[in-house]
Structures are given as C-alpha cells and as structure tokens.
Amino acid sequence: MKTRLVVVSLCVLLFSSCIVKSIQPFYTKSSINYSGKLVGNWTDNKNGQWDIRSFKDEWEKETDPNTTLSKESKEAFERFKDGYYIKYKKKDTEASFIAMPFMVDEHLFIDLTPFEYDSDDLNKLVAQHLLKTHSTAFVDITNEGFTLKWLSEKAVNKLITEKRLRIKHERTGIDEDLVLTATSEELHNFLKKFMVSDFEDKWDNDDIRRLKPNNAKP
C-alpha cells in the first residue's frame, strides 16, 4: 500500500471544526466487528470521495505470498486484518487512513488513524512534530448508504469544563487542542455513556458526512 497522505491535518482536510482526538484507539480488541457494508466507492455531502477497502484484501493484493514477513509486519497484519484501508479525496488533496470498525453496545463506530503522509512539500522540522492520533465516528447505516458522525470537541470540552465528564486528557499546542490520554478501555466505556447521555450538540453539523454509493441512481 504505497498511497501517501499529502495533507497535514485531518481537521483541515475533512472538517471546518475540530474533532475529538486520542492517543490510544477508541476500541478494544473484543469490540472489533467488521462490516462489509462500508466497503465500496462513495461520495459524501461535501463532495468528498471515499474509497473504502478491506484491509485484509488490500494487504493480500500488495504482499507477495513468497515474501518472508518481518515480525513487525505480521503484528501489523494481525492488528488491522479486520479493518479498512480508506482513501479520501477532495479536490486536489488526498488522505489515507486505517479504520477499525467496532461496536459500542448496539452502535457501530469506526476508529480512524492517518496511515501515511508525504512530507516532501513540508518543512522537515514541522513534519517531525506531527502525531498520528486517533479519532472515532459513529456509523449510521441507512438504505441510501451511511452517515459518519464524529464526536464534537466543543461538546466534550463543555462536559469536561462543567465536570460532567472525568476522563484523562491534555491540552496541547498554541491553540490548546484537546487530546484524550485515557486507555482504550476507558475510551470505550466513555463512548457507552456518551451514546446514552441526553444533551444538545452531541454531533457538530460540520462534522457529519453522509455517504452515498457512486453508482447510486439520481
């Protein structure tokens, strides 16, 4: 898989507002649940193009079966074999992600991590400061396709400020961006409470992507 991420920031590429980011994955191993319904070519409501593939299928296509894999490669395959390889394009920008599907009670989520970025056009010192964090989106499957809803940083910030949410976190950078530092188990438990909680603006409208298949009839 040689595709490269040619944009720096997930927030800049996908969103007009920022999403909740985490150091650790939002899923636990036991919560992983692969769904073939997400595989395909899609267009979202912001004219973004999504190419979602099975990570396992993509790996097998790109890997010579006669090649002896390193320990690290074997571990990577085992870790992501039930996930997706995603290419996202909008205008002249392109990004690639590894996405892991998982269940939070009866709700389907995906955990996304930037796969690779090309720093050829980026100041090398700046590139070394970049950290590939995790984000997570609720997946609402419909008859027409599916909708992705990312956790609103504004909503989570408000919960933390009002002391309605206690979760390990840090604020980093000049803009004091919120980054969750809790364990995957704690993050998964947080999502359970988040889904059943009743409060406004759980999902920022700017962070919602409605995906329809490219071969859908008008």
From TrEMBL:
Q: What is this protein called?
A: Uncharacterized protein
Taxonomic path:
Bacteria, Pseudomonadati, Bacteroidota, Flavobacteriia, Flavobacteriales
- Could you tell me the keywords of this UniProt record? Signal
Q: Which residues form the signal peptide?
A: 1-22
Q: Can you tell which superkingdom this protein's organism belongs to?
A: Bacteria
Extract the PROSITE patterns matched here: PROKAR_LIPOPROTEIN
